[in-house]
Write a structure and sequence with these properties.
This protein folds into three domains: 93 residues, Orthogonal Bundle (Fumarase C, Chain B, domain 1), CATH 1.10.275.10; 247 residues, Fumarase/aspartase (Central domain) (Fumarase C, Chain A, domain 2, Up-down Bundle), CATH 1.20.200; 66 residues, Fumarase/aspartase (C-terminal domain) (Ribonucleotide Reductase Protein R1, domain 1, Orthogonal Bundle), CATH 1.10.40.30. Helix content is 64%, strand content 5%. The chain has 18 helices and six strands. The radius of gyration is 30 Å and the shape is elongated.
């Protein structure tokens, strides 16, 4: 992921140094578990723990060796063996590369999900606070892009909050699904080490052992994680698209706090953060597709998934984290133009109250189909003439045969749309 969309602490999680440290953590856990089990000397385990370390020089040396031998983990092990000396022969004892890499990757993904969960909880608090702030802020609701009936801006925010709560649940489920390690060896038979060793190592690392594996942990787990991120991104995009639409000049009900808009048009204030979030959501969906393709590996494993995961997993986490952080800032600073919302409620000259009139007519005995056609005709007349819908209703004898002027007036009272708002919240 480019630096522009990389923020701490997620950025540090996916650095090269962090990856080497996770590899080392798994190797050391394996060494200590083997010593506890009695497979290698305790003194050797202590020597290894005391002598290995990760520095920039170690990383550079490992990369130099990788260029020579073409294998990143093997190069890393050779550098560790150089540090340790004779006891280094017990490093990676009975293990294959994927025992280390897949277990370390699970650790990284688990930590990444914990970062996202914490960030999402903060966003939920911001949305909740602003939803309560605007619980009774009336605005027009739109279906198919057309004015429908009044809602409140707080209700719109609450809808987003409810969806993000489901995203939170999905992230937590994904954290559980990915928190598995494996030390089952080259093809999953535990030929070199027994399942007990795997259990000891995973316990040390806060993971659970995979009940069955081949050379790798099955990639449906990783796809589940990226599916959760893609759904989170889609939810954030839904919010972003709505903010962008409500920021249109013709609507102008909300505005991002943006210091600058256009380089050539000084008057413009563009919803660029929301637009960026919309763009990054596309990346998350594309990465999910790649993760799904990774599931069908050959036989007990091939390496076709590896190159893909080096890109899609860090990028998806970095993008998701960036989107959550930026959306929190957008919602926190969002400018709500309540006066413009009120003005927009009146753009249809009262047509948005047609259902209220319809229900009153039905309650008074008019057939629903008859009432619907009658009101539709009056609505068309109001549009063509530019007159207020209420005025036409008050003049129409067919309407007044069922409803009094007071009852007609009641149908246009916007407070009607607030009567259940406390229960919804």
């Amino acid at each position: 992921m480019i630096e522009r969309y990389s923020l701490p602490p997620m950025r540090e999680l996916w650095t090269e140094e962090a990856e080497y440290r996770r590899w080392l953590e798994v190797e050391l856990a394996a060494v200590e578990a083997l010593a506890e089990w009695g497979k290698i000397p305790q003194a050797a385990a202590r020597a290894i723990r005391g002598r290995v370390h990760i520095t920039k020089e170690v990383i550079q040396r490992a990369k130099e060796l990788e260029r020579e031998i073409g294998h990143d983990l093997l190069a890393f092990l050779r550098v560790l063996e150089e540090q340790v000396g004779p006891e280094g022969r017990f490093l990676h004892f009975g293990l294959t590369s994927s025992d280390i890499k897949d277990t370390a990757l699970a650790m990284a993904i688990r930590t990444g999900l914990e970062i996202l969960i914490a960030e999402l909880r903060e966003l939920l608090e911001v949305i909740k606070r602003r939803a309560l702030e605007h619980k009774a802020t009336l605005m027009v609701g739109r279906t198919h892009g057309v004015h429908a009936e009044p809602i409140t801006f707080g209700l719109k925010l609450l809808n987003w909050h409810y969806e993000l709560e489901r995203d939170l649940e999905r992230l937590e489920e994904a954290r559980e699904a990915i928190s598995y390690g494996k030390l089952s060896g080259s093809v999953g038979t535990y030929a070199s080490l027994p399942p007990r060793a795997e259990e000891l190592v995973c316990a040390r690392l806060g993971l659970r052992p995979s009940k069955v594996s081949d050379q790798v942990i099955a990639r449906d787990r990783h796809a589940q994680v990226l599916a959760a991120l893609a759904l989170l991104g889609a939810g954030l995009e839904r919010m972003a698209v709505e903010i962008r639409n409500l920021s249109r000049t013709e609507i102008a009900e909300v505005h991002e706090r943006a210091p600058h808009g256009s380089s050539s048009m000084p008057h413009k204030e563009n919803p660029i953060t929301s637009e960026t979030i919309s763009g990054l959501a596309r990346l998350l969906r594309a990465n999910l597709q790649a993760a799904l393709e990774n599931i069908a590996l050959w036989h007990e494993r091939d390496i076709s998934h590896s190159s893909v995961e080096r890109v899609i997993i860090p990028d998806s986490f970095l993008a998701s984290h960036y989107m959550l952080r930026r959306m929190g800032e957008v919602i926190e600073g969002l400018i709500i133009d309540e006066e413009r919302m009120r003005e927009n409620l009146e753009l249809t000259q009262g047509l948005i109250s047609s259902q209220g009139v319809l229900l009153k007519l039905v309650e008074k005995g008019m057939a629903r189909a008859q009432a619907h056609e009658l009101l539709r005709g009056l609505a068309l007349k109001a549009r063509e003439s530019g007159r207020k819908f209420k005025e036409l209703l008050l003049e129409d004898e067919r309407i007044r045969g069922y409803l009094s002027p007071e009852e007609i007036e009641e149908a246009f009272d916007y407070n009607h749309y607030l009567k259940q708002i406390d229960e919804v919240f």
